[in-house]
Task: structure prediction
Amino acid sequence: IRDAHRYFQDRTSWRSTPSALGGLERVHQLGVDAMCLLVSSHLTSAGPAVRMKRVVKSDNDDVTVTSRFEVPIVAASTESASSTRKRLSAALHNRDLMKSVGEYEEFLPLDTRQVRELRAIFECLGGEGLTFNTSLKNRNKSLGDGRPSLQMIQPSKNVKVTRTEKVGSGCYTKLVKQPLKTGHPHLDAYGEARKAVAFASIDGYYRHIRLGRRKELQRHRSAMNTGALSQDSGSDADGVARDAVRCLEHAMVVVAGEKSIYRCVVSPTSSHTHDEAKVPREYKLALVESYSHVAAAVVDRCMDIIETVFVKDAGVNAFASSNNNPSNAANTGGAANHSGGAGGAGNAPNGPNAPGGANDPNTSTPLSNIRATANAAAAGLRILDGVRMLGPSLAKLCHMSSHDSRSSQEEQMSVAGHLCIGIHRTTVKNCAKTLENLAKAIQNDPLDGERHRPKDARVAAVSSDAVKAIRLICPFVSAYKSVTKRRALPWDPNIGEEAGDLDSFIRFLIMRLLNSLQGKMLNYTRDPGLDSMAKSNLFMINNTFYLLEQLTPTSGYYQPDDEIEGDKFKIQNPWFKEKVGKIFENEKNKYLSHWEILNRHLTQVDKHDLSYQNNQVLTLESGRLLKSRFSGFIEDFENIYPVHKELTVIDPNLRDMLQRDVKSVFVPRYGRFYEKYSKIHFSKKNMDQYLRYPPSLIEEMIDQLYVQQ
Result:
């Protein structure tokens, strides 16, 4: 057809030339449209370029059976952070990353006939077959169908990735929604067809694992005989974070599969007659743009999945907005009104002043309590751990060089490349917010309420929650460093190499926790009653001892860097033991001083002041000296003991320690006093009343102190 077209172009004087040229152009366009339709049909019907990985098993006859099972290769719900890092690090080191990530593997979904047809089409339309004008540059300038020129669509360093779509909508930015217009209809057909398939692959995978997690949660609820999860479980932030990392791994496999299709049938290098010098620059840029169009849809979906975890499951923005409300912050540590009723209806059944509402001091909202923010922070660090390790490899898979020496590397970066950078930036930003929210949740923990300031001065929930929070974030040392390298934080204004490590953040959390505990201790002293001071001291003793027991390493303890999980974590830096230990000793000494008052009655009586009647009974004046001492001790003991009897020490080691220390304050002295003066008959009728507390009984009563009521 092209030869015939050229034939008539050389014979413009003929009357039939215009109609012949028009007919040839219509036939040519029909052929181009048909080939583009075939390209779209083949590449759409081929389906995803991924399949389940092979699982090799041996039966009883030692026969190796290779088959594919729809089960995860890695136990994603139980794999620890260190195990994930080891798996990915080993894969990166051995350059077999694609064999170690995800549950799927890349493969070519096209059969031989389809590959042959597609290659023929791309060789034809990628050369001079697309147009009668052999000059691609001139053809690009003369496009009259409304399509932009190639010069307009080539990648630019000015591309800015920002969220333009609703969170959770399945799309992050409108850049990937724009139709592909390269000026080459066969590349447009390829890009649009594979974009739809690739997006469906990553989107379907995410929906599948999300549905599986919902079923798992439903089974858990049924087993617990409850229709809803507890507040502490929150929205299962750790689970959805693991799902996000799994989606990131799956995205790498999907993009790798799409790259295989591109290289097999689209790239000019797949042709045996390929000559790089004959491929126009504009066509190279169009090839890059078409491949980026496919890869960008996958990366964009991953960005939306990751940010959905932060915004909807981790609630980073919800906590920030609730913390800006000063009235709620004063009462509930920044708790927002999530009652579901009218925000200002304080008298409504579900209003903020109702039990369990935002202003109820006994509760914190699910998005602002320490456990929820700790789960969110750990989830953010887990996602960032995956992004920092997989992000560079994903960017390489998305990159397709145009071999254009006239453009810088930044100018050659496609939309997919900018999205890969955007994943890391947004993850770092949101992860920093979760860390700040955790610190604010500890600092703003309510000062009153049974859960926050127990009546019996036992360990407060804020202490156990803070310890759990530290243990949740401790495995992510490298991920935390990725945050501080790029963002200044309230507790660490430095960035880059000068920024602090995870220990500095843990120290900040401990200091915020101690400030919160001291605020609660101060509120104990404002309570009416004789036990207010004793409660304040014992409250700090309970909490500081708990922190020391949970986070201080024992002798011979060894903690390898970046490999600690959960309950094994200890703060090895000496500042912790020195700071918390000093507070513990000071408060214990203050608490024991409450018992010191008993010793003022146990003073010796000078022998010259004791005079007897008939050498057996003391005179009235001498008897009063001993009576006043015994009666004073009994009165103070009976006043002090009931006060301390109501207090609780859960830890048996601390309880034994306090019982011994309380005894050491006055019992030895009381024993000597009792032993010496109980032998003297200083009362004619009431000796039993003055001696009703022998030292052995006192010790038995002290042994009953601090037992949980």
Q: What stands out?
A: The CA atoms of residues 3 and 132 lie 9 Å apart.
